[in-house]
């Protein structure tokens, strides 16, 4: 039986999301200190297993584990025995034999973290698999909105538009799911060719290809990365046309409400989905997303490895409770 | 399950807090350089009450709160329920920090709080104030200021609030 894992946002549910976001507040406080480190996960080992390139997610997880005093190992597929033909399963079992408490997995194939979770006793955290899911991105997005708008109680009534290549985006899948679980109303804005087949009620609350119609009325404008490789698949006529219809241009930036948050999961294609300098947008929280990613990943690691099970509601005089049972 | 037994009433708690406030002032020859740090969850209200009394008797002192859940020695052994986020908005270097908790039992929470406090700076001295000392220490920790020494068995629950102290 495997330990608790975080493969999709479904593993948490709305109460689990709130639990992680509450924990992230504690971790953010740690990160604000001159010495941002706590002994919470001393003796635990976290292994980053990245079969796909990543800068921010890998560094973010590594930093998160270190700030909790866990030991970290990093496995980069490009420098490994994968090149000698070792299978994914053998690779994971080999690393697991060295004593690992959690695997942080990025893989180009949807479902790979799920498979890995079936092969190991360790916790598995999905750090992005194919087009499928990227739950920690969704959590850091939710945390960023929660802190920026002081929405600690949830997202009831929050209006969000998520713009771009929804079809190929694991970020869109997880983030839309998390925001809707917290009560937000999410509209997907994309050309028909970049919509997933299951778009509709199940995926989002509304779908449109007319960004101008709603841009002035949203609380959160979430821009997705336009993946250049989609050009070759002829899913959009040209990058210039994409920018004209779906990019955040200076004209559209002027239509944003004064409080509207502008978000992007990175890396940004400047001049494509975002054709203004985000530093000049008062509502841009793209850097905060990166900063918050560390606190949120600390919260996820602590929730899986340190909490000893689901968190119980606080009882009176919980102080100094020992593991002994009542003796009466 | 034994029936709940009230050991102290609200008036007793108020008197105990007043006495502890006097003792803190007396021990430190005034409250110059003294700060109060309530341990989450139970110590926070007591730190606030002590601060109120100290301000009435002498001069106001800074009050903060500390969540020590990330420093506990039983992480992974039982569910963790952090309280509110730590809030120490003053410099801890060189002060006399009075850690405040409602009930002192095994001493493990205080041990964690000492480690947590050290990550904010180096106090000149740390003292410990608790409303109830119920015994059964598992670590070499003793309180400096005690509202009430209360013999208990390990299986009993002790709750200590401004409304009173209850054993159940």
Structural commentary:
- The complex is a heterodimer of chains A (328) and B (168).
- Chain A has helices at 13-32, 56-67, 88-97, 112-119, 135-148, 170-181, 211-214, 229-232, 239-246, 250-253, 286-305; strands at residues 45-50, 71-76, 102-107, 123-129, 159-163, 185-189, 206-208, 220-223, 261-263.
- Chain A is an alpha/beta fold.
- Chain A folds into two domains: 9-134 and 289-305, Aspartate/ornithine carbamoyltransferase (Rossmann fold), CATH 3.40.50.1370; 136-288, Rossmann fold (3-Layer(aba) Sandwich), CATH 3.40.50.1370.
- Chain A has a five-stranded parallel β-sheet, with helices on one face. Chain A has a four-stranded parallel β-sheet with strand order 2-1-3-4, sandwiched between helices.
- The longest helix of chain A has 20 residues, at 13-32.
- The radius of gyration of chain A is 21 Å and the shape is globular.
- The two termini of chain A are 35 Å apart.
- Chain B is an alpha/beta fold and 168 residues long.
- Chain B has one domain (5-167): Rossmann fold, CATH 3.40.50.
- Helix content of chain B is 26%, strand content 27%.
- Chain B is built from three helices and eight strands; from the N terminus they run E-H-E-H-E-E-H-E-E-E-E.
- Chain B starts with a strand and ends with a strand.
- The interface between A and B is large, with 39 and 44 residues.
Features:
heterodimer, A: alpha/beta, Rossmann fold, 2 domains, 11 helices, 9 strands, 14% strand, B: 168 residues, alpha/beta, five-stranded parallel sheet, three-stranded antiparallel sheet, 3 helices, 27% strand
């Amino acid at each position: 039986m495997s330990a608790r894992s975080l493969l999709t946002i479904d593993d948490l549910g709305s109460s689990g999301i709130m639990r992680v976001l509450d924990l992230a507040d504690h971790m953010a406080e740690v990160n604000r200190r001159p010495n941002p480190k706590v002994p919470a996960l001393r003796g635990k080992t976290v292994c980053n297993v990245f079969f796909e390139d990543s800068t921010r997610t890998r560094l973010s997880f590594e930093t998160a584990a270190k700030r909790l005093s866990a030991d970290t190992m990093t496995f980069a597929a490009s420098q490994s025995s994968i090149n000698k033909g070792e299978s994914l399963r053998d690779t994971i079992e080999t690393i697991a034999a060295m004593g690992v408490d959690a695997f942080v997995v990025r893989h180009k194939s949807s479902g790979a973290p799920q498979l890995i979770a079936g092969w190991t006793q360790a916790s598995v955290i999905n750090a992005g698999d194919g087009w499928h899911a990227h739950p920690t991105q969704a959590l850091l997005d939710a945390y960023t909105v929660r802190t920026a708008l002081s929405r600690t109680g949830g997202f009831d009534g929050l209006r969000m538009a998520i713009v771009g290549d929804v079809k190929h985006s694991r970020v869109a899948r997880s983030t839309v799911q998390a925001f809707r679980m917290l009560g937000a109303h999410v509209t997907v804005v994309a050309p028909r060719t970049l919509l997933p087949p299951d778009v509709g009620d199940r995926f989002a609350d509304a779908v449109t290809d007319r960004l101008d119609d709603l841009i002035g009325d949203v609380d959160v404008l979430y821009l997705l990365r336009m993946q250049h490789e989609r050009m070759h698949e002829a899913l959009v006529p040209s990058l210039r046309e994409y920018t004209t219809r779906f990019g955040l241009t200076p004209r559209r930036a002027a239509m944003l409400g004064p409080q509207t948050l502008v978000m992007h999961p990175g890396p940004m294609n400047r001049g494509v989905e975002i054709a203004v300098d985000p530093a000049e947008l008062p509502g841009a929280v793209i850097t905060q997303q990166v900063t918050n990613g560390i606190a949120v990943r600390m919260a996820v690691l602590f929730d899986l490895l340190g909490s000893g099970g689901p968190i119980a509601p606080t009882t009176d005089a919980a102080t100094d409770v020992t593991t002994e049972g009542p003796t009466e | 399950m034994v029936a709940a037994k009230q050991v102290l009433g609200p008036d007793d708690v108020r008197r105990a807090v007043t006495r502890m406030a006097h003792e803190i002032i007396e021990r430190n020859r005034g409250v110059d350089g003294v700060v109060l740090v309530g341990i989450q969850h139970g110590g926070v209200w007591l730190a606030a009450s002590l601060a109120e009394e100290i301000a009435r008797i002498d001069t106001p002192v800074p009050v903060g709160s500390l969540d020590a859940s990330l420093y506990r020695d039983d992480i992974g052994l039982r569910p963790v329920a952090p309280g509110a986020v730590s809030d120490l908005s003053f410099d801890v270097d060189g002060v006399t920090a009075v850690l405040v908790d409602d009930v002192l039992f095994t001493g493990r929470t205080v041990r964690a709080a000492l480690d947590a406090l050290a990550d904010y700076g180096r106090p000149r001295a740390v003292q410990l104030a608790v409303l109830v000392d119920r015994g059964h220490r598992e670590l070499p920790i003793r309180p400096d200021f005690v509202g009430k020494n209360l013999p208990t068995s390990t299986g009993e629950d002790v709750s200590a609030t401004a409304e009173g102290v209850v054993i159940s």
